[in-house]
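Quick entry, no commentary yet.
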Amino acid sequence: MTEVRVRTDPHPPAPRDAGLAARTSALAAESPARRQSSPWPRRLRSTGKHVALVALAVAMVYPLIWLLVSSIKPSELIFRDVSIIPTQIDLANYTEGWNALLHPFGHYMLNSAIVVLGSLVGNLVACSMAAYAFARLEFRGRRVWFAIMLMSIMLPIHVVIVPQYVLFSQLGWINTFLPLIVPKLLATDAFFVFLMVQFFRGIPRELDEAARLDGCGHGRIYLRIMMPLAMPALATTAIFTFIWTWNDFFSQLIFLTNPDMYTAPIALRTFIDSTGQSSWGPMFAMSIVSILPIFLVFLLGQKYLVKGIATTGIK
């Protein structure tokens, strides 16, 4: 009879999931404190940050909300009841404010629109041409003129407003829109020139060289290559120009003394008389009306504004 023997290997082969077993043993060896760590501290920090941001946003928006609510309150309750939940609603402030001045308030908004339109065209054309010259052309004294242009940003308007008034008075431009529009056609807003210079410098020069091989001069390069690629910078310039010009009060007050030429900011000022008395309800209502164009422009152009700032500031 044949005897069957079973061979026993003293060193059996390692299992296929040795890596899994090693990781399991490592996890088992972790400290109990680490295994029992809770995500609550991280969630509390995140919640605290969001609460702080919401509180800051409410603090920033509260004056605008109060202005909106006050515009629909009766005038005698505006300062007596300062809550943002009106107890009485009176929409007559809008009709009274619209017709309270020498002309309907739309007349003054139209004047502001004319000034804004002229400033927009001037800044977009003149500043972009000056920026192209600084970024792409080689001429004597380019660095010196660029430094002088940057230094002009540091000059406050109060320093130059007196010589400007004397010059425009001699030209007979007082009580016209020319003092507010013509300087924009001469690229006097150095901030926008610098903004576009930074953008143009980020465009590869190989595009210019390829265009020159096709027979393009600087004019066609500027119009057909630089301008289409500079749309984010142009949109940023347009939005800032609109907001700053629409809200401008000081220079428009200096150059426009005829009530027929008043813009919206100056017209709002006329609601307050020389004794300090004011028609608060109609003035708040027309303030809301004058804010609406700025709100719409910022809402529609926010995407281009962020993109323009990002592409001109990050190199």
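second:
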Amino acid sequence: MAKYLLKRIGYIIVSLFFIITITFFLMQAAPGGPFASERKLPPEIEAQMNEAYGLNDPIHVQYFDYLVRAITLDFGPSFKYVGQEVTDIIARSFPYSLILGAEAILLALSFGVLLGVIAALKHNKFGDYAAMVIAVLGISVPSFIMATILQYIFAIKLQALPVARFESFAHTILPAVALATTPLAFIARLMRSSMLEVLNADYIKTARSKGLSNRVVTYKHGLRNAILPVVSYLGPLVVSILTGSFIIEKIFGIPGLGNEFVVSVTNRDYTVIMGTTVFFSVLLLVSILIVDLIYGLVDPRIKVTEKGAEK
């Protein structure tokens, strides 16, 4: 296990190196500059700012300086927010994204698994059709369209929930639902097909022939094996939630890290763009590693060997 973890951590470090390198040179290749705006600065002022931020140094010098700082989690100062470091912006905005993402993941997993199980147990009946209609709608409607629909119905028409901002738990309900809709629908379809396959397996028939109740057979013997594909989907689920939060946070006016990323792109705030990209990459790579470890815990047949293989 220790060798496996060290090997995976090595892969993460190599992946981060390539991500930092590619992001840096993409920012350098982007047209314009961090101080380009509708109101053009006097040339002497812009030259002073470029010198102060080290933008006049050769590209390779800037690259190695940034690489060294990134290793120590120092992403430099923001070009647009005077006196603010990128790490301060991440520390300030990430808790909002973390709360929203955790709620969305919880909603997607709980209701997705529930709908999938109901659809499998009520195969070719009303419960199956209803669950699959919900799943198809969830996959078909983009999250930003779902967000506006939820705002119109529950905030404007019914006035039951706040339309935007992030000041209480009530403010998180609509954005979390909008963010969870698509992965919830995918989990429901995945769980349904997996559950149907498991319920028709020989060991399930054997358990029923022993006189075990349907509840015991379904939840003790069937659910644990049927949920394995859902566990493997947790990595892409985190990716979906994090990338989806960029638009959702902007729509609902949530001062999260996704919103900061969108604003930084608009402002050409290159250090914030690169810092948030690296930070999101770390989260995704670590989450994939955690999912692999959880997969081995859920299914005892899967063991992580010292060579890093699964058997």
